[in-house]
Amino acid sequence: MINRVLIRAKVVQNLYSYILTRPECTLNKALKDLDASLSKTYELYHYLMRLPVELTHLQEMRLDEARNKYMPTEEELNPNMKFVNNRLVAAMAANEELQQYAQEHTVTWNDDPILERLVLDKIIKSDVYQEYMSSTEDSIADDSQLWQHLIKQVILPDENMVDAIEQRSLYWTEDDIDLMGQFVCKTFRRIAEGAEDAILPMFKDEEDGDFGKELFSATVTQMPENNEIIDNLVEESRWDKDRIVLMDRIIMCAALAELRSFDKIPVAVTLNEYIELAKNFSTAASGKFVNGILNNAVKLLRKDGKLLKQ
């Protein structure tokens, strides 16, 4: 579930922190920090999975309170229960894997009741909710579609929600929120389809699970040599090596480490991923600069027999 695109981004972010805090931050501590960063990202997935369950429970309580007040209206006595009877939410509430994770990691929104009420109010006022409640369609697929649309169109575009998520953890960024939102919607579809393994694992397989630590270690180990390669190429291109921003240097060192240490990853994949990281994490000119240096580095490594894969 946490794919290599995200792992590379986390590695680069943690390398930046590691370099700025040396020698206080050891390699062992940096690897632990990386692991914590990836684990917190998976926790965000579970937080977003928990949200429909707790918002549905809140709406059920509201309807019950309205029904039992002193002089309820006819609508309050006989409310439309379609939202609170949503079968996708019922399946998630009953899922033992989700329950166990939530208990072990204290995953809940109940500690922020104001936010819960604000998000629920926004949902109820939304066109997505109104269309769902008035529709005659009645299936778990439609129940799943509701929450997919709410996540994409109502909940995650809400600045208050994004701010609240980011405040819960220093590890969570807008990119993490967007990506986990996509995986949550994928999980909703899988649950509606009756998949037995609907809840996504933290990593696709053991190889992906080890990728971040191996890439981080390889980057640190090879950094002196890879920095020398970068400096020589920069001088040849008539750039001033002292003007290279730190993030660009880290991205290029990580890219070179991946090129040299991971035989199964095609060269083009590595180049494309780190050029994108440079565009997203560094300066406006970084994408073009990193692209030029890395392509020249590939030619040099091939010439020296240090890069044989395609």
Task: Provide the descriptors you would attach to this structure in a database record.
310 residues, 2 domains, N-utilizing Substance Protein B Homolog, Chain A, mainly alpha, 14 helices
Strand content: under 5%
Q: What is the β-strand count?
A: 0
Instruction: Sketch the major β-sheet.
Output: none
Show unreliable segments: none
Provide the domain count. 2
Q: Give the oligomeric state.
A: single chain
Instruction: Give average pLDDT, whole number.
Output: 95
* Helix/strand structural class: mainly alpha
Report the principal-axis shape: elongated
Termini, distance in Å? 27 Å
Instruction: Estimate the helix proportion, in percent.
Output: over 70%
Count of helical stretches? 14
Order of helices and strands: HHHHHHHHHHHHHH
Nearest-angstrom radius of gyration? 24 Å
